[in-house]
Amino acid sequence: MYLGTAAWAEGPSERRALVARLASGRLADLNRIEALRLRKLGELDAERLADALVPPSLRRVLEGGPRALARARQTAAYAEKWDRRGTLPLGLAPAPDAVDLLPCLPRPAALRRLDGQSLDRLGVRGPGAELTGPPQPGLAALGLAGGAIAGFCLALEEVGSAILGAWLTDEWPTGSLELRVDAARRSAPLRAWGGPGPAPAAGGRGAAAAPAPPQGLPPPAPRRRAAPQRRLRYPGGAAGGRGAASDGAVGQNGSGLGHFKTIKRS
Fold first, then answer.
1. What residues pair up with 16 in beta bridges, in sequence order?
2. Where is this region: Disordered (predicted)?
3. Pairing verdict, β 137-143 and 205-209
4. 3-state helix/strand/coil string of the chain
5. Domains of the chain, first to last
């Protein structure tokens, strides 16, 4: 399961919500789909109940603990079946080109390195953030209420905070972290981390692991911008987003977590 946070226009207003990435590439608005499912079951106040069971915020899901994450997984499976039948309305699952992907957890309750050093949780950025130096690819573990790990997302430690990828996966990712600059490419297998390690302390908290980048690559020029990939495809799958021709990328190759793409500043 891949969970993220997306924003898209709805007339003069904007919708910002928890989404799940479906096999078709569409992004399921889990809160609205749960409300509709409950309404079909005869619930009189389906929207309020859906806000409690599958809230439109990933942080609230994490604060709800394992049961809340399990409900989000059930709603994502319901949306997947609906989409495969070809009848899932576009308003409940927009196409990836119609949304802006945000950091999967835009406002974590806390943010720290695995060594315990605190990072600025209010400075978290996501796809589209400018990089001030050579990227240090890593992963962030996101915690559930009670101390368990909910899942992992791509992460770059940057200026005392972090840039988080668009997608949280609820399983330990496979494959490798890859850093590419022009024609040069280096990768580090994820098995080097030896598993997920210690969990963040509570729901909505993140712990970022950002090892040194693979050696032997020329550093990208300063003031790059990290953007999720949309038009080009890699073995790990596209991550959504807009951008020009790339001259460098950092991402996870092998399970669909997606990529950051560094592009020249416009």
1. 7
2. 191-266
3. antiparallel
4. CEEEEEEEEECCEEEEEEEEECCCCCEEEHHHHHHHHHHHCCCCCHHHHHHHHCCCCHHHHHHCHHHHHHHHHHHHHHHHHHHHCCCCCCCCCCCHHHCEECCCCCCCCEEEECCCCECCHHHCECCCEEECCCCCEEEEEEECCCCCEEEEEEEEEECCEEEECCCEECCCCCCEEEEEECCEEEEEEHHHHCCCCCCCCCCCEEEEECCCCCCCCCCCCCCEEEEECCCCCCCCCCCCCCCCCEEEEEEEECCCCEEEEEECCC
5. 2-100 (no CATH), 103-263 (3.90.850)
- Contact (CB, 8 A) for 135 and 179: yes
Dist CA 22 CA 19 (whole Å) = 9
The model scores a pTM over 0.70: yes
